[in-house]
Specification:
Keywords: Signal. Residues 1-25 form the signal peptide. By secondary structure, the protein is mainly α. The radius of gyration is 23 Å and the shape is flat. It contains 3 helices and no strands.
């Protein structure tokens, strides 16, 4: 029984130190002061890359036809519902 107490104490201290470390960071402070402007001519994914990385080493959006239907369909809504309830 004495072997269990030091192990339990060390696990508790480790968990407490990890929680203190997470609580000491400020989640509302931005990493950068630069403002990001969303470009509607680019895809959402490309805007995320531009906003988070800034440099994308030649990564571009794929070309798609003018009349392409890229909106969500029933399968997309069903998948979102399943993931949301999971």
């Amino acid at each position: 029984m004495n072997l269990l107490k030091p192990k339990c104490l060390s696990i508790t201290l480790l968990a407490a130190s990890l929680l203190i470390g997470c609580a000491s960071t400020d989640p509302y402070k931005p990493q950068s002061d630069e403002d990001f402007v969303y470009d509607p001519d680019k895809s959402f994914a490309m805007n995320v890359v531009d906003g988070s990385l800034g440099v994308h080493n030649g990564l571009t959006d794929a070309a798609r036809p003018q009349d392409a239907d890229t909106g969500p369909d029933a399968v997309s809504y069903t998948a979102d519902a399943i993931i949301g309830f999971w």
